[in-house]
Amino acid sequence: MPVITLDRFHMQQLCTNAMQELRVRARREALKADVEAREQHRHRNKRNLSKRKSGKKDPRGRKPNRANEAYVPQRLPNGDTRCELLARSRYLLMVSQEKWTESQKIRGEILFELYPDIKTAYSLVHSLRGYL
After folding, report:
1. How far, in Å, CA of 107 to CA of 101, rounded?
2. CA atoms of 14 and 121, how far apart (whole Å)
3. Separation CA 16–CA 96 (nearest Å)
4. What is the pLDDT of residues 82-117, one digit of tens each?
């Protein structure tokens, strides 16, 4: 009969990996949403360009929509996009809150506000560090 050994370090590693999987899954969803928003922006620009009057000569009218208007993603209060937030939060999820820098504290607050499941996983992993 095989002997199963559970030790503190492997349990922590398994829990941390599960938490990181939540972060990665959320990041993939954010990337898909970003790609979709870019496509909608591109289609909206094409539609607006086709609706413009072709022979308009009056310069006092509305500013024309450019065909190549840049897409500007939604920014969070710290200046990151959702994808950047999830990518840059990898290290802060690995260490305890006492060791976070000021920018990591701000990033952590935003991350936990937007993704409560990651906050729950972080608190469980952090509580395991103390008990094991």
Report:
1. 10
2. 12
3. 12
4. 999 999 999 999 999 999 999 999 999 999 999 999
| Residue labelled with tokens 């395991």 | 128
Distance CA 9, CA 19 (A): 15
Task: Quote the tokens at residue 69.
Answer: 């208007």
Task: Note every long-range contact of 15-18, with CB atoms under 8 Å and residues 24 or more positions apart, other chains counting.
Answer: 15/121, 15/124, 15/125, 15/128, 16/93, 16/94, 16/125, 18/121
Q: Which residues of 96-120 are buried (b: 16+ CB within 10 A; e: fewer)?
A: eeeeeeeebebbbebbbeebeebee
At position 75, the amino acid (one-letter code) is: R
Q: In sequence order, which ranges of the chain are alpha helices (DSSP H)?
A: 8-51, 82-88, 102-114, 116-131
